[in-house]
């Protein structure tokens, strides 16, 4: 301590040019220290927004200086089989046991099998993009961190805000579905578990206490330990897979192939495609929620022992395995019952219990298996949402309190607890119909952004290459994809539609090939990279845009509302908190350099004496 005081005194006398640094250290104040300070900060919002919105971080900063803001480190205890277990457990419960009934009966019919295949392909291509980032930059921030080092803070914040809403909505939907399946196990209808409040609007008037209890229990588990959470997940996932194999075998052995083409009501549309080809893609957009689990796996990268080997196996492998399981389960259900008899809330247990003779006992078995799957899905997704919030807190665009990692459990306890309570509050009263479409649109948007980011990062090196050729390609390709989607959705069937679609496809391929031939890659991945660059991420961009176009209008209204809310939060809080953090980091770095220089001067002076 005395050395530090002597150093300061000495440098003030002999290095007056450095003295302003100490003054800056004393006079730097937070934008939120007082009302007058906040009002003064608001008056500088345009300047700060311009400076911070496009500011990019570096992988080195994300893995060192930024990660240090959490205090304690997350313990590296996970291997590839842990990630594979988290991926399978996180996806299977949410997808099949929540969305299949609605997608089959209302959107795709028996062709829901193809809906799962389309959504799985889109997810696999996106998984490749996630894997390249996660191997190169193994941090817990997932898409938020990937966009922060690519497109800057503002794009990362909007994406991160939508990601948090995705997880909260998805987990609330899955928890409410748990009530339905648990009721099947004990023979009590889910309506008996929920309290109706007539004063609340429709879709928000069914109070679900069981869903709240489940979410709070899972929150406690993920706060306790990541290693133990993995063990619990592996046990529940193994039991769940046994039930899935059982469901597939029963469905294929006891069902009838005619149910793939003949509805129970002759007035309904028949055939494998009762809703047409568009129904397949509409169904794919709805079931896309089921693949949000692999995104959660990417947030565990900071806790993986060998990211180069374990992450590609865990992320991509889990998507492939889950896609096969989804398609087989959807096919078994479609074979067991005509699509117009499938229950929209608990499709599998209802299919075996109420509609098929002699299989009532199977319904309760499925209820047990679905309950296991829903618990694993909640466990993985809630781990993911907590790690997203933790890393967003590290960037200072939300209060740093969220970034803290508990020194004993080595888990983000603050973020886990806050989001657990928030999710429980939402699950208490919000219906599934309100939740599912909003989750799908947010997920598709995030995957679209990550696909753009991996192309940009491969072809643009800041300070070395110009970004405009790559940005022009990304904008023009996205615009062509949007035009293709609008033509597909709004133009009536006929030769005109076929011609316009063909023209858009030719233009998109031409743009892609021209970019591939004329713009060289600025960097090559050191360990693992997306193959066939830029074709695979470009196809991912197109599929995400196309699936986005399959969603309904209210979904875009809700998505626009939450995005606008995120912009308001960024303008009135995040940009100023980030600006303050930038100043603190700059002063801290200068103070470190100043201290080292002063100490060297003191040593020289002592040597002379």
Name the CATH architecture of the largest domain: Up-down Bundle
Spans where pLDDT lies below 50 across 5 or more residues:
1-27, 586-609
Strand content: under 5%
Strands in their spatial order, largest beta sheet: 1-2
Give the fraction of residues assigned to helices: over 70%
Radius of gyration from CA coordinates:
27 Å
Silhouette = globular
How many separate structural domains?
2
Summed up, what is this model?
The protein is built from 23 helices and two strands. With 609 residues, it is mostly helical.
Account of the 3D structure:
It is a multi-pass membrane protein. Belongs to the amino acid-polyamine-organocation (APC) superfamily. Cationic amino acid transporter (CAT) (TC 2.A.3.3) family. It comes from Lupinus albus. The model is unreliable at 1-27 and 586-609 (pLDDT under 50). The longest helix has 56 residues, at 553-608. The chain has 609 residues and is mainly alpha-helical. The two termini are 22 Å apart. Strands 1-2 form a two-stranded antiparallel ribbon. It has 23 helices and two strands. The protein folds into two domains: 52-464 and 553-571, Amino acid/polyamine transporter I (Up-down Bundle); 466-521.
Overview features:
two-stranded antiparallel ribbon; mainly alpha; disordered C terminus; Amino acid/polyamine transporter I; 2 strands; 609 residues
Task: Describe the protein's topology.
Elements (H helix, E strand, L loop, with lengths): L1 H13 L4 H9 L7 H9 L1 H9 L5 H5 L16 H29 L3 H25 L6 H6 L4 H34 L3 H4 E3 L9 E3 H16 L1 H29 L21 H12 L4 H7 L8 H30 L10 H7 L6 H35 L18 H17 L2 H28 L8 H23 L4 H24 L16 H14 L4 H56 L1
Antiparallel strand pairs: 1-2
Helix pairs in contact: 1-23, 2-23, 4-23, 6-9, 6-12, 6-13, 6-14, 6-15, 6-17, 7-13, 7-15, 7-19, 7-22, 9-11, 9-17, 9-18, 9-19, 9-23, 11-17, 11-18, 12-15, 12-17, 14-15, 14-17, 16-17, 17-18, 19-22, 19-23, 20-21, 20-22
Membrane topology: Multi-pass membrane protein
Protein name: Putative amino acid/polyamine transporter I, cationic amino acid transporter
Pfam families: AA_permease_2 (PF13520), AA_permease_C (PF13906)
């Amino acid at each position: 301590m005395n050395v530090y005081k002597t150093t300061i005194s000495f440098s003030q006398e002999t290095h007056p040019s450095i003295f302003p640094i100490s003054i800056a250290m004393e006079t730097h104040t937070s934008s939120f220290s007082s009302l007058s300070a906040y009002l003064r900060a608001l008056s500088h919002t345009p300047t700060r927004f311009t400076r911070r919105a496009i500011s990019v971080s570096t992988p080195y900063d994300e893995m060192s200086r930024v990660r240090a803001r959490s205090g304690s480190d997350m313990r590296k205890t996970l291997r590839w089989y842990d990630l594979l277990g988290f991926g399978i457990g996180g996806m299977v419960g949410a997808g099949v046991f929540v969305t299949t009934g609605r997608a089959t009966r209302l959107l795709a019919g028996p062709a829901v099998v193809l809906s799962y295949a389309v959504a799985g392909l889109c997810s696999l291509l996106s998984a490749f993009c996630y894997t390249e980032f996660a191997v190169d930059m193994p941090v817990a921030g997932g898409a938020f961190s990937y966009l922060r080092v690519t497109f800057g803070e503002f794009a990362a914040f909007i994406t991160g805000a939508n990601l948090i809403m995705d997880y909260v909505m998805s987990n609330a939907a899955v928890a409410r579905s748990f009530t339905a399946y648990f009721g099947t196990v004990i023979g009590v209808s889910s309506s008996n578990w929920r309290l109706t409040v007539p004063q609340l609007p429709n879709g928000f008037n069914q109070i679900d206490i069981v869903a709240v209890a489940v979410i709070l229990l899972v929150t406690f588990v993920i706060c306790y330990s990541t290693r133990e959470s993995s063990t619990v997940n592996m046990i529940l996932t193994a039991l769940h897979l046994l039930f899935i194999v059982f469901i597939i075998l029963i469905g294929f052995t006891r069902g009838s192939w005619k149910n793939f083409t003949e509805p129970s009501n002759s007035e309904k549309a028949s055939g494998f495609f009762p809703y047409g080809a568009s129904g397949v893609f509409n169904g794919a957009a709805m079931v896309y929620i089921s693949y949000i689990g692999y995104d959660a796996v990417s947030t565990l990268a900071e806790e993986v022992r060998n990211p180069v080997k374990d992450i590609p196996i865990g992320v991509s492998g889990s998507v492939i395995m889950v896609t096969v399981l989804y398609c087989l389960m959807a096919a078994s259900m479609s074979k067991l019952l005509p699509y117009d008899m499938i229950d929209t809330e608990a499709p599998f247990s209802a299919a075996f219990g109420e509609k098929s003779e002699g299989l009532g006992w199977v319904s309760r078995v499925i209820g047990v298996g679905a309950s296991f799957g829903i618990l694993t899905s909640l466990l993985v997704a809630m781990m993911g949402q907590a790690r997203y919030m933790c890393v967003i807190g590290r960037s200072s665009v939300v209060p740093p309190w969220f970034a803290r990692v508990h020194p004993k459990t080595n888990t983000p306890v603050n973020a886990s607890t806050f989001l657990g309570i928030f999710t429980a509050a939402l699950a208490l009263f919000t219906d599934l119909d309100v939740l599912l479409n909003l989750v799908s649109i947010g997920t598709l948007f995030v995957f679209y952004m990550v696909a753009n980011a991996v192309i940009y990062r491969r072809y643009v090196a800041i300070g070395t290459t110009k970004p405009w050729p790559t940005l022009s390609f990304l904008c023009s390709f996205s615009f062509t994809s949007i035009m293709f989607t609008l033509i597909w959705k709004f133009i009536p069937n006929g030769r005109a539609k076929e011609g316009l679609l063909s023209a858009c496809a030719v233009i998109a391929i031409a743009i892609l090939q021209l970019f591939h031939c004329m713009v060289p890659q600025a960097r090559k991945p050191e360990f693992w990279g997306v193959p066939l660059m830029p074709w695979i991420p470009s196809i991912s961009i197109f599929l995400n845009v196309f699936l986005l176009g399959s969603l309904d209008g209210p979904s875009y209204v809700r998505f626009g509302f939450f995005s606008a809310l995120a912009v308001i939060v960024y303008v009135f809080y995040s940009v100023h908190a980030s600006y303050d953090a930038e100043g603190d980091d700059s002063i801290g770095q200068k103070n470190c350099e100043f201290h080292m220089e002063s100490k060297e001067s003191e040593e020289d002076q002592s040597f002379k004496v």
